[in-house]
Amino acid sequence: MKLPEPQVAVLNAASATEEQPIDRLAQAAGLKPETATQAVFELRDDGLLDVAETASTEYELTEEGRAYVDAGLPEVRLYRAAVDAGADEEPVQMGQVIGAADLDGPEVDIALANFGRKGYGNIDSGELSADGDADAGSDPEAVALVALANAADGAGAGDADGSDAADTDGSDAGDAGSAGVGSDEDPLADVDDDVLDQLVSRNLLDRHERTVRTVTLTDAGVTALMEGVEAAETVDRLTPEMLTSGEWRDVEFTEYNVEADAPEVRGGKTHVLRQTAERVKDVLVGMGFQEMDGPHADADFWINDCLFMPQDHPARTHWDRFALDVPPIEDLPEDLVDNVERAHREGVGEDGDGYHSPWSEDFARAIALRGHTTSLSMRYLSGTQIGDLEPPQRYFSVEKVYRNDTLDATHLLEFFQIEGWVMAEDLSVRDLMGTFVEFYEQFGITDVQFKPHYNPYTEPSFELFGRHPTTGELIEIGNSGMFRDEVLEPLGVEHDVMAWGLALERLAMLTTGAEDIRDLHGTLADLDFLRGAEATY
Ligand SMILES: N[C@@H](Cc1ccccc1)C(=O)O
């Protein structure tokens, strides 16, 4: 059988009875590890080799660990100095012992803490006593460090990557070697896991988890070797010289293995929430809406006062809003401020009634991060943004809002709201509900439920619920209603306006099946979930 040279070398180095790690095989075959790895997989694909994967834990001395191999662990040095000073007979001044132990800087604390932990003695009001029976000479942590250092030094040249690493529990794989590479005895075989944990937490050892691939010959591999394999003179690269000399005509080219494993490449992609937002915009534009735009930090006037939210409403306390320490807004339309104040104090219409509670313009001018994008609806409906409006009008935004909520599976402190409103001559609740049914249908959500609700600014008001595809639970997806006269009249709007705020993340939960809103965005986002998530409507 003719095979490419690296494959022949690997096949010859492999054994039917001993599992060998690829690194070792590479060395025995005189190949670079990458070349050997490639050859191994090609031979596996041809059925000549078996490849097994074993997890292995390796330990490596840190710089500090190495330093203690030479100098001794600080607590052991302290113990020795203590015994020399007679602290096993009677307590000795601590300062004296520390000086004698030649500890300095952070070593003093390290020594004292571990001295106590290991029961080498006691420290009491500045005096140190040592337990004469303690066996600091065979301190298990020190023994482990030294064993590891010796093994690393001994392995030295033989060690494939030249590091101080020692393979411990992958020893089935590592010990079988016959390639004559150093000693594969596990230097930490006798060391308790507790001791290793302690050394890792003391930062004296680094722990690495590694996957080791080990290789054995299959029956077919053994047969091939017995029948004889020789290196095929294949060429893997066409050179200009071959072309000019015409040699290319006579050589055999290496075949490409188009089925070989290749590293997985993950390109960037649009975040599923952004995909959903774009889709929402398309749907709303398709339904005849135009997009609104406006400040994230805005005057309370636009965020709350225009919405007939009393200034002593609980949602307006500092608990709920993110107030900003910036100068108050200056340019509020005077007429509108007067109208809004009058609505709050006296109400609107013939038999209207206001809140009869204090209303302060200063309070209205203070700036905060918007808790909803209804502030944009107010700006647009007031005519300050796009001039006076003749019905019908339809506007929307898909923008961020900020609430001082408690983070949980359905709440974020920053999220996106799908704001919208329709102004027309004559609107009813049926128009409102119909709009949502039409909207959500575009996302495959056909089971939208409505629950009567209360908002200071809409009457009637409805909360919207949708069913989560995997948990089957109804989750709140939005809030809506018909703006009250107390909102519309000060704005100078003489027609009906229906409006809503829908949560983009909740919509994405329904369409992607995310059960926890925190998986979608923010610092806790689940990258594996996001990589696979697509907006599929
Ligand atoms: N502002 C409301 C949503 C809403 C907007 C407009 C009218 C009615 C409700 C909220 O954040 O929950």
From TrEMBL:
<feature type="compositionally biased region" description="Acidic residues">
    <location>
        <begin position="161"/>
        <end position="172"/>
    </location>
</feature>
<keyword id="KW-0648">Protein biosynthesis</keyword>
<protein>
    <recommendedName>
        <fullName>Phenylalanine--tRNA ligase alpha subunit</fullName>
        <ecNumber>6.1.1.20</ecNumber>
    </recommendedName>
</protein>
<feature type="compositionally biased region" description="Low complexity">
    <location>
        <begin position="173"/>
        <end position="182"/>
    </location>
</feature>
<dbReference type="Pfam" id="PF01409">
    <property type="entry name" value="tRNA-synt_2d"/>
</dbReference>
<dbReference type="GO" id="GO:0000287">
    <property type="term" value="F:magnesium ion binding"/>
</dbReference>
<comment type="subunit">
    <text>Tetramer of two alpha and two beta subunits.</text>
</comment>
<dbReference type="InterPro" id="IPR006195">
    <property type="entry name" value="aa-tRNA-synth_II"/>
</dbReference>
<dbReference type="GO" id="GO:0005737">
    <property type="term" value="C:cytoplasm"/>
</dbReference>
<keyword id="KW-0436">Ligase</keyword>
<comment type="similarity">
    <text>Belongs to the class-II aminoacyl-tRNA synthetase family. Phe-tRNA synthetase alpha subunit type 2 subfamily.</text>
</comment>
<dbReference type="InterPro" id="IPR036388">
    <property type="entry name" value="WH-like_DNA-bd_sf"/>
</dbReference>
<dbReference type="InterPro" id="IPR002319">
    <property type="entry name" value="Phenylalanyl-tRNA_Synthase"/>
</dbReference>
<feature type="binding site">
    <location>
        <position position="374"/>
    </location>
    <ligand>
        <name>L-phenylalanine</name>
    </ligand>
</feature>
<feature type="binding site">
    <location>
        <position position="483"/>
    </location>
    <ligand>
        <name>L-phenylalanine</name>
    </ligand>
</feature>
<dbReference type="InterPro" id="IPR022917">
    <property type="entry name" value="Phe_tRNA_ligase_alpha_bac/arc"/>
</dbReference>
<feature type="region of interest" description="Disordered">
    <location>
        <begin position="156"/>
        <end position="190"/>
    </location>
</feature>
<dbReference type="GO" id="GO:0000049">
    <property type="term" value="F:tRNA binding"/>
</dbReference>
<dbReference type="InterPro" id="IPR004529">
    <property type="entry name" value="Phe-tRNA-synth_IIc_asu"/>
</dbReference>
<dbReference type="GO" id="GO:0004826">
    <property type="term" value="F:phenylalanine-tRNA ligase activity"/>
</dbReference>
<dbReference type="InterPro" id="IPR045864">
    <property type="entry name" value="aa-tRNA-synth_II/BPL/LPL"/>
</dbReference>
<feature type="binding site">
    <location>
        <begin position="417"/>
        <end position="419"/>
    </location>
    <ligand>
        <name>L-phenylalanine</name>
    </ligand>
</feature>
<feature type="domain" description="Aminoacyl-transfer RNA synthetases class-II family profile">
    <location>
        <begin position="280"/>
        <end position="525"/>
    </location>
</feature>
<keyword id="KW-0479">Metal-binding</keyword>
<feature type="binding site">
    <location>
        <position position="457"/>
    </location>
    <ligand>
        <name>L-phenylalanine</name>
    </ligand>
</feature>
<keyword id="KW-0963">Cytoplasm</keyword>
<dbReference type="GO" id="GO:0006432">
    <property type="term" value="P:phenylalanyl-tRNA aminoacylation"/>
</dbReference>
<dbReference type="GO" id="GO:0005524">
    <property type="term" value="F:ATP binding"/>
</dbReference>
<keyword id="KW-0547">Nucleotide-binding</keyword>
<keyword id="KW-0030">Aminoacyl-tRNA synthetase</keyword>
<keyword id="KW-0460">Magnesium</keyword>
<feature type="binding site">
    <location>
        <position position="459"/>
    </location>
    <ligand>
        <name>Mg(2+)</name>
    </ligand>
</feature>
<keyword id="KW-0067">ATP-binding</keyword>
<dbReference type="InterPro" id="IPR036390">
    <property type="entry name" value="WH_DNA-bd_sf"/>
</dbReference>
